[in-house]
């Protein structure tokens, strides 16, 4: 598989009246064509801002300060707004947590599907209509032709999410970014939507970046996972590496906070105590120091480098240094 996207040392800040919030602090990642990558972390870890930087959809006070975002050979940080408009919706589709943020309440679902096809693909209205109907059928919306004439408020929550997925894929994008796509849905619909996305990935060979706070959501769909904390990637590896051989205490905490279906009645969930770091004044050393049970003196003063565990698996934690104390394996991982 060749590389579709590579982000190198991305730094994004927001300039507020209280100072500079360093939301993304040197993120590097890559995505292969046809691959699904999970980006996991708590709210405020920088995962959504990394993607908004990539789409060049930051709020006015947000700025990319450094780094490259190479998509199909072009550096997106260097493109004009007009060039970016061609990429958004056409080459890269987005699915958000709340469909109402991307569905326009005053246009029918049909209009919202037809318009990008006419704009980006130069289709006639008739061809765009037929393609839009096919898309609604593909995402499992019954009576698609009738539904084309309806407005978003006439759809249920799960159906709106499906309509938004149809909008994201209607131009056959090379990449779909799904930001907490199922958080607002109940578990049954959640499972159906995830299954649908997996199916579309396989059928259309679309690459997917799935952003979530929930490791359980990425387990089934993604082949690799990047764990973010404090505006940085703190661990990356294959899904197997992350679930069966995690090497960062933050990942251990995330794994322990995933409910285990085998013990759901007996087991209490273990949230990670404490608060994420203040990104107005990010820590000099490891951003997880204040919440980490294994913090050492070096963690406070020196940012851990990415230690290579194997050629796909890396973790930014001093415990992976050859001279660090060995940690009991029971402390690591949760439900793996
Ligand atoms: Fe904990 Fe230190 Fe590892 Fe950070 S570098 S996660 S503080 S042990």
Record keyword descriptors for this entry:
336 residues; alpha/beta; Rossmann fold; 2 domains; eight-stranded mixed beta sheet; four-stranded antiparallel beta sheet; 11 helices; 30% helix; globular; binds iron/sulfur cluster
Q: How are the SSEs placed, and which strands pair?
A:
Blueprint: E1 3-16, E2 19-32, E3 36-40, H1 47-55, E4 62-71, E5 74-75, H2 81-87, E6 92-95, H3 109-121, H4 125-138, H5 144-147, H6 157-169, E7 175-179, H7 187-204, E8 207-212, H8 215-219, E9 224-229, E10 232-238, H9 239-244, H10 249-256, H11 297-301, E11 307-310, E12 313-315
Parallel strand pairs: 3-8, 3-9, 6-7, 7-8
Antiparallel strand pairs: 1-2, 1-4, 4-5, 9-10, 10-12, 11-12
Helix pairs in contact: 3-4, 4-6, 6-7
Bound molecules: iron/sulfur cluster.
Short description:
The protein is α/β, with parallel strands linked by helices and 336 residues long.
Task: Tell me about this structure.
The protein has 336 residues and is an alpha/beta fold. It has 11 helices and 12 strands. It has helices spanning 47-55, 81-87, 109-121, 125-138, 144-147, 157-169, 187-204, 215-219, 239-244, 249-256, 297-301; strands spanning 3-16, 19-32, 36-40, 62-71, 74-75, 92-95, 175-179, 207-212, 224-229, 232-238, 307-310, 313-315. The chain has an 8-stranded mixed sheet with strand order 6-7-8-3-9-10-12-11, sandwiched between helices. It has a 4-stranded antiparallel sheet with strand order 2-1-4-5. A hairpin with a 2-residue loop joins β9 (224-229) and β10 (232-238). α3 packs across α4 (125-138), α4 (125-138) crosses α6 (157-169) and α6 (157-169) packs parallel to α7 (187-204). The chain starts with a strand and ends in a 21-residue tail after the last strand. The structure holds iron/sulfur cluster. Residues 248-249, 286, 288-289, 292, 294-296, 299, 304, 317-319 line the site of iron/sulfur cluster (SF4). Iron/sulfur cluster (SF4) is lined by residues 248-249, 286, 288-289, 292, 294-296, 299, 304, 317-319. Belongs to the ABC transporter superfamily. One of its GO terms (molecular function) is ATP binding. Residues 5-255 form the ABC transporter domain.
């Amino acid at each position: 598989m060749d590389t579709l996207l590579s982000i190198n040392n991305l730094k994004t800040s927001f300039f507020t009246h209280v100072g500079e919030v360093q939301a993304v602090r040197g993120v590097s990642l890559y995505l292969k064509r046809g691959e699904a990558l999970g980006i996991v972390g708590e709210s405020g870890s920088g995962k959504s801002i990394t993607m908004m930087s990539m789409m060049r959809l930051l709020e006015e006070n947000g700025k990319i300060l450094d780094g490259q975002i190479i998509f199909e050979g072009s550096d997106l940080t260097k493109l004009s707004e007009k060039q970016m408009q061609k990429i958004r919706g056409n080459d890269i589709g987005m699915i958000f947590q709340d469909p109402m943020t991307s569905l326009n309440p005053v246009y029918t679902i049909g209009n919202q599907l037809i318009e990008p096809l006419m704009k980006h693909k130069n289709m006639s209205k008739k061809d765009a209509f037929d393609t839009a109907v096919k898309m609604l059928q593909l995402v499992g919306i019954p009576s698609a032709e009738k539904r084309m004439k309806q407005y978003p408020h006439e759809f249920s929550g799960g159906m709106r999410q499906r309509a938004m997925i149809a909008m994201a894929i209607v131009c056959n994008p090379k990449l779909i970014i799904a930001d907490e796509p199922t958080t607002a849905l109940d578990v049954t619909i959640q499972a159906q939507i995830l299954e649908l996305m997996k199916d579309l990935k396989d059928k259309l060979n679309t690459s997917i970046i799935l952003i979530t706070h929930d490791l359980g959501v990425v387990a089934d769909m993604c082949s690799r996972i990047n764990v973010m904390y404090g505006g940085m990637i703190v661990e990356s590896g294959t899904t197997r590496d992350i679930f069966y051989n995690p090497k960062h205490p933050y990942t251990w905490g995330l794994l322990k906070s995933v409910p285990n279906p085998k013990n759901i009645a007996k087991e209490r969930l273990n949230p990670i105590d404490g608060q994420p770091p203040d990104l107005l004044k990010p820590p000099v050393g490891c951003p997880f120091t204040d919440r980490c049970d294994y913090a050492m003196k070096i963690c406070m003063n020196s940012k851990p480098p990415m230690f290579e565990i194997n050629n796909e698996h890396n973790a930014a934690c001093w415990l992976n240094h050859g001279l660090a104390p060995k940690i009991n394996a029971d402390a690591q991982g949760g439900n793996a």
